[in-house]
Design brief:
Number of helices: 4
Strand content: under 5%
Radius of gyration: 17 Å
Distance between the termini: 23 Å
Helix content: 55-70%
Order of helices and strands: HHHH
Oligomer: single chain
Largest sheet: none
């Protein structure tokens, strides 16, 4: 859990540091944080394609996690 929280916080901070450097500013659009918050959803509304990207990424992670958990062999332990 600690590693997950560290990755979450680090990615959140890096997302807001992207605009400060012209060299990496273009990479901001590849971040899930940008997909969720980049278009100012409160004032401009929710972007359907960004929401679709978030849902697709979430579904992919759930599918991969399900397959990996089912492959575990804890009976032999």
């Amino acid at each position: 859990v600690g590693v997950t929280v560290a990755v979450l916080v680090a990615s959140y901070v890096v997302n807001f540091l992207f605009p400060l450097s012209d060299a990496i500013a273009g990479a901001r659009e590849a971040s899930p944080w940008y997909w969720a918050l980049g278009a100012q959803p409160v004032s401009d509304g929710i972007s359907p394609w960004r929401t679709a990207l978030l849902l697709a990424a979430s579904a992919t992670l759930v599918a991969v996690g399900t397959v990996l958990v089912e492959r575990r062999d804890i009976r032999a332990a």
